[in-house]
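User: quick one, fold this
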Amino acid sequence: MNLIKKILLLGLLVLSQISFSQISDDVMLYRKDFKSISGKNTVSVTSYEKDGSHYVFAGGVGNIDVYSLDKEGILTPISNHELYMKKGPARGMVADRINGTDFLFVANKHGNVIETFKILNNGSLERVALVEDTDKTYLGTTITLQVVHMKKASYLFIGGLEETPGLSSFKIHNDGKLTHVQSMKDDETVHTDGIIGMYVHNIKGKTYLYTGGFQDNGVSSFRVYEDGTFKNINNISDNNTDRYLTGAYPVTGATIAENKYVIVGHRHHKYYKRGGFIKKTDFVYHGDGVSVFKVNKKGALVPHFVLKDDETTKLQGQTRIEIISTNNAEAILAVGTRDDASIQLLKLNKEGILTPINYLETGFSIYYGLRSHKIEDNNFLIAGSFRFDLGKIASYKIAPKINREGKVLRHIVNLKYKEDATDAQIDTAVKVFLDLKNEIPEIAHIEWGVNDSTEGASKGFTHTFTITFNSEHDREIYLFHKAHLKLVNEVGPIIGDVFVMDYWTKNN
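Assistant:
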């Protein structure tokens, strides 16, 4: 290769790296679709690619909903499946391929069982195995699952919230059935009381598992062996000064260049109102933060960095952390929150330092129901609402932030009422619509009118409402607000058709 070509290739490489860095510093979430679920709420979400098709599984109370996801982020319902004893909610769902067969493993929280479903060719599910709790397996109130692949076999690691907590390992057979390998009872040393997050790192041919202990406020490291057995490596507890592990919740990890990290979030015990649920009530609240641990050569966790929540971030009540993308320079993360009802985007550089990027106020709380998924060059997040009055699942595309400075968002709703709708019903519908301004402070302005066009192109639409928002956040909060949902339910029976368009314009 001559010198000129080498210079050109080097220049292109530098430009591509600069471009990625610039984009990742200012990415944003843009909602692409939302669909209803058949359950009462969405507690867990996972996704899977099978033979070039992409599927989303939303687990709630009593059942699991299955959707397809296309490259535009559009969700299409496929099927729904009843959980064992109609219990649940479905927690810790993980999909994986075991010796050529695709399975979805589901922790049935209040059913105290692990359910194995075969993923069929169209994405729908067929239950093939069921493992019930015993006094030695710690599957009661089970909530978290992690598949660990070894050279000759794969294992399912299981954690939960039961009164006698611990960590269990099961061998996964080719037909999806599980056989018990080992269980380790929780004690004062390890952090396995309330495992709500797990992650796996491989270091020079050795496999390590990391768990968060929600009730005992800390994180633990375990070495996993070829036969599925495991032993504790090290443990890090919360303190009252600079650690943020009270209610350790989501656990994930990233490998950047030669560095391996484990990222841990928490939903602090102060957010829990149920009496008697939190075992250790002498906690101290010193804020919210996301913790980064570096993994040493022996697989042990070493405290490294904490990103503290402030007025510019949305990190209160972290319930899920997803890795969106990773390269040799950085990783992009998404943090779902229950108490801030938002998704916060973060960047982790190769030195293990977290910095905030942007956030979107989703308008609903997230409770473990957040999943990152990539189709071709498009990165998506799928989020489920934990609210019982909002049975929805939404998809978001991660893309460069659009400059909205000096602009407002117009939300245009055109309505056609049914022929048998009375004038009194229509007048009431108009009043309820206009009352949204008093119920939803994020609405900057609302106006309405009756169609006066004489061109004959109105297609029967008679009423138009124009709502103005100042940001994407405001539109999301409005869309999923209780007052808006109430309007839809009350007015829906007399609506013949609806046509909605949104656009951004200068703020005059």
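User: anything notable?
Assistant: The first strand starts at residue 27 and ends at 36.
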